Amino acid sequence: MTHGMRMDTHTSHLNGGRDWRDNASRYALLPLRLFLGITFIYAGLDKLTDSAFMKETGAGSVGDMMRAVRDSSAVPALVDLALKNPPGFGYAIALGEVAVGIGTLLGLLARLAALGGALISLSLWLTVSWASDPYYYGNDLAYLMAWIPLVLAGAPLLSLDAALRARRRTGGYR
Fold first, then answer.
1. Whole-angstrom Cα distance, residue 71 to residue 11?
2. Torsional sign, CA 15, 20, 26, 32
3. Rounded to whole angstroms, what are the CA distances from 31 to 34, 35, 105, 144, 146?
4. Percentage of the chain exceeding pLDDT 70
5. Could you say which DSSP state residue 85 is in?
6. Is residue 101 over pLDDT 90?
7. I want to staple 126 with a disulfide (CB 3.0 to 4.6 A). Which of 28, 74, 89, 146 is the partner?
8. Is 73 left (phi over 0), alpha (psi -120 to 50) or beta?
9. pLDDT above 90 (res 23)
10. Is 3 helix (H, G, I), strand (E, B) or coil?
11. Beta carbons of 65 and 47 less than 8 angstroms apart
12. Given this model, what pLDDT does residue 77 score?
């Protein structure tokens, strides 16, 4: 009689023969979607409700922040564009963050929402946090990298995109 290790694994037929690793892989982007969606909604609402932020000048204003980073940014022309109308730029960023966050949480046009998040993060990295030394102190680069998997994969599970895709495939809900 030979003793040895059993090499096969038990898989339940209830979940289509998938083991826990397959399920973990399928849901791997969900925590990232939740984090980025909630964070961007919060950031946008924080800007919209901060009376000092949406001003051209003054402590904590978007205008003063843009003037402070202009000479140290990677793309001063982008800062100059924002300085033409600081409150308008502040509203554009804040409303963009809210739209990106909602799209990401709901999984509605998820790749487009993620691309929007990546572009917002890229613009903030090239302007506001460019001078961070060492570079990893600036969080906008990390957010940019976090958006890339969602740009590539979208929201394949637990999303309106997935529900709409399933509805198109089956010809509607029954």
1. 60
2. positive
3. 5, 6, 10, 16, 11
4. 89
5. S
6. yes
7. 74
8. beta
9. no
10. coil
11. no
12. 95
Interatomic CA distance for residues 75 and 161, integer angstroms: 35
**Token pair recorded at residue 39:** 């964070």
| CA neighbor of 67 nearest in space, from 91, 86, 51 | 86
Q: Tell me what percent of the residues of the chain surpass a pLDDT of 90.
A: 77
Mean pLDDT over residues 160-165, rounded? 94
Nearest-angstrom CA–CA distance, 74 and 132: 11
| DSSP-derived secondary structure letter, 8 | -
Q: Is the bond leading into 149 cis (omega within 30 degrees of zero)?
A: no
Alpha helices in 50-174 (DSSP H): 62-69, 76-83, 86-106, 110-127, 139-153, 160-170
Q: Is the pLDDT of residue 7 over 70?
A: no
